[in-house]
Design brief:
This protein starts with a helix and ends with a helix. By secondary structure, it is mostly helical. The model has no long low-confidence stretch (mean pLDDT about 90).
Length: about 240
């Protein structure tokens, strides 16, 4: 029984790694389509999304099969549960990459507006967060996952607030640029949501490795860390 379960979980791991690689590639292509105004990359992102949808269903079916046939417990059960949740977040990241690519096509069709918001920096940070979350998942690195959960996600949220503020001001000053500026804001919103799903993957990685459910506990965890650091400081 244990040998069969190990074989099935190894198969599941390969399926999830393949899905993750495809999702990461589509995010990268969508980002480049926006920054480089590359229509071909945008269309490629849209056209290959169905492969992510198929893979997501296959992973879910494999998870359910393992649960039904092997009734795993302890860390094996945590692994399967985490994979079910991570699988869904990967599929949603893929959908958001498509949304970005669709906006890129609309942006390419219009003159590039002047804006003080650095969309490229936000794209780069979001792409990095997705990569780090997947690295944490693949390597079962709870420390990296915790760093993503506690710090990286906040930077994306800050940039989204900055985007909204700057684009709102620029629309008031240059109403003729409303449509292209709204496209920029829409891309920023997709980036923020991609980062949220990447953070979910990090939180589920912590659960998978340590068995701790950290969802909704960021403030409490930071307070505990601050108290521990204060108690450890001399004097």
């Amino acid at each position: 029984m244990a040998v069969h379960l190990m074989r099935e979980t190894d198969k599941l791991k390969k399926m999830v790694l393949s899905l993750a690689a495809h999702v990461e590639e589509n995010v990268r292509a969508a980002v480049r389509s926006v920054i480089e105004r590359d229509q071909a990359l945008a269309y490629r992102t849209i056209e290959t999304d169905h492969l992510i949808d198929i893979a997501e269903v296959d992973v879910e079916e494999e998870c359910l099969k393992i649960l039904a046939l092997h009734q795993p417990v302890a860390h094996d059960l945590r692994y399967i549960v985490a994979m079910l949740k991570i699988n869904r977040d990967l599929e949603r990241i893929g959908d958001l990459a498509v949304s970005m690519a669709e906006r890129a096509i609309q942006m390419i069709a219009k003159p590039k507006p002047k804006t003080t918001f650095d969309l490229g920096a936000m794209c780069e940070l979001c792409e990095k967060q997705v990569s780090h979350s997947l690295d944490a998942m693949i390597n079962r690195d709870a420390n990296l996952a915790r760093e993503i959960w506690l710090s990286e996600d906040d930077r994306i949220d800050t940039m989204m607030a900055e985007a909204f503020q700057k684009v709102e001001t620029e629309i008031r000053e240059h109403p003729e640029n409303t449509e292209p500026l709204m496209n920029i804001l829409s891309v920023a919103r997709s980036l923020e949501r991609i980062a949220d799903h990447a953070t979910n993957i990090a939180k589920d990685t912590i659960y998978m490795v340590e068995g701790e459910i950290v969802r909704h506990r960021k403030r409490k965890y930071r307070e505990q860390m601050a108290a521990a650091q204060q108690n450890a400081s001399p004097g």
